[in-house]
Structure formats: structure tokens, C-alpha cells
């Protein structure tokens, strides 16, 4: 009932379509991008109808480097710069969700209040990335954005 989903299987349909297209144009190359989660993974496939020699690759050294990076502290709320964001239109009103970093380097996640959509609507009109927010914890312990200044 979910057309192959949920999760990563939606991309299989794109890959199958790409294979059909490449069979019709064997000299062409194809690109399929796939988003498989919530800010967690993205994959890319480059396809061709012409065989290529296998060239093994290991990302172990790169992953070890990434694993060695300092992890940011998680903070509850406060003042921060927006590192990434999304605006969800699936409800009655839009809700903006951001990941922000405070001056000490700590990260926090905050949302606009669904009952007061003006701020999310403004964020949809202005560029939030790199902007500044202030968030406070509500009575449920969730960080709610109460002030936003657009990025430049």
C-alpha cells in the first residue's frame, strides 16, 4: 500500500526507471539521488549502460577521521545561529524546525509554535540559514522559537 516505502525503497523505483532510460540511450549516464532519513543519510548513484572495471574503495580512513572530530554539546535552548532548517506544511499551520548552535558551540533543536504561525511564515519568506534565533523551553520541555533574525 505504500508503493515500496517507507524508508529507502522509494529510490529503488528511481533506479529502475533510470535503468530503463539508459537501456534506451546506452551512451548516456544517469544520476539518482536519494534521501533516506531525517537529516541522517543521503546517497548518490551514478549509472551507465556501459560496463566499467571494478575499483574497490574503502571509506574506513575517512570515517575514522570523522569519528575523531569533537562532538558538540547538546544544550536545551537559548540564543543561536541556524545551521539547518525545514518548514513543515503538513499540519493546519506551518511549523519551522531548526538546528542551531550557540556561542559556546552547543547545538539545540527548536520549533516555532504551531498555534502562532506568523514566525514560521516569516521564516518561509526570509532566509533562515545563518540567521539568529532565541528559543525558550515551553511547559512540555520543548524549545520554542520566540525570536528570529534572518541570515544575510
Q: Please, could you describe this protein's structure?
A:
With 152 residues, the chain is α+β, with helices and mostly antiparallel strands. Helices cover 21% and strands 33% of the residues. It contains three helices and seven strands. It has helices spanning 10-24, 60-68, 118-125, and strands at residues 29-35, 42-48, 78-88, 95-101, 107-111, 132-137, 143-149. The strands form two sheets. Strands 5-4-3-6-7 form a five-stranded antiparallel beta sheet. Strands 1-2 form a two-stranded antiparallel ribbon. The longest helix has 15 residues, at 10-24.
List keywords for this structure.
152 residues, 3 helices, alpha+beta, five-stranded antiparallel beta sheet, two-stranded antiparallel ribbon
Summarize this, please?
This protein has 152 residues and is α+β, with helices and mostly antiparallel strands. It has helices spanning 10-24, 60-68, 118-125; strands at 29-35, 42-48, 78-88, 95-101, 107-111, 132-137, 143-149. The strands form two sheets. It has a five-stranded antiparallel beta sheet.
Q: What is the helix tally?
A: 3
Give unreliable regions as ranges.
none
Helix content: 10-25%
Order of helices and strands: HEEHEEEHEE
**Portion in strands:** 25-35%
Structural class: alpha+beta
Distance between the termini: 44 Å
The backbone outline, from C-alpha atoms, is: extended
Major beta sheet summary: 5 strands, antiparallel
| Total count of strands | 7
Q: Mean pLDDT, as a whole number? A: 89
> What multimeric state do the chains show?
single chain
Radius of gyration: 21 Å
Strand order of the largest sheet: 5-4-3-6-7
Amino acid at each position: 500500500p505504500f508503493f515500496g516505502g517507507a524508508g529507502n525503497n522509494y529510490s529503488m523505483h528511481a533506479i529502475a526507471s533510470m535503468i530503463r532510460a539508459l537501456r534506451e540511450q546506452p551512451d548516456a549516464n544517469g544520476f539518482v539521488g536519494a534521501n533516506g532519513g531525517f537529516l541522517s543519510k543521503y546517497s548518490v548513484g551514478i549509472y551507465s549502460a556501459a560496463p566499467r572495471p571494478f575499483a574497490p574503495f574503502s571509506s574506513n580512513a575517512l570515517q575514522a577521521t570523522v569519528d575523531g572530530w569533537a562532538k558538540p554539546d547538546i544544550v536545551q535552548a537559548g540564543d543561536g545561529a541556524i545551521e539547518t532548517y525545514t518548514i513543515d506544511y503538513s499540519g493546519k499551520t506551518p511549523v519551522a524546525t531548526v538546528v542551531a548552535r550557540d556561542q559556546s558551540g552547543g547545538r539545540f533543536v527548536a520549533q516555532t509554535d504551531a498555534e502562532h504561525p506568523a514566525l514560521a511564515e516569516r521564516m518561509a519568506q526570509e532566509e533562515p540559514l545563518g540567521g539568529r534565533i532565541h528559543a525558550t523551553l515551553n511547559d512540555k520541555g520543548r524549545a520554542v522559537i520566540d525570536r528570529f533574525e534572518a541570515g544575510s
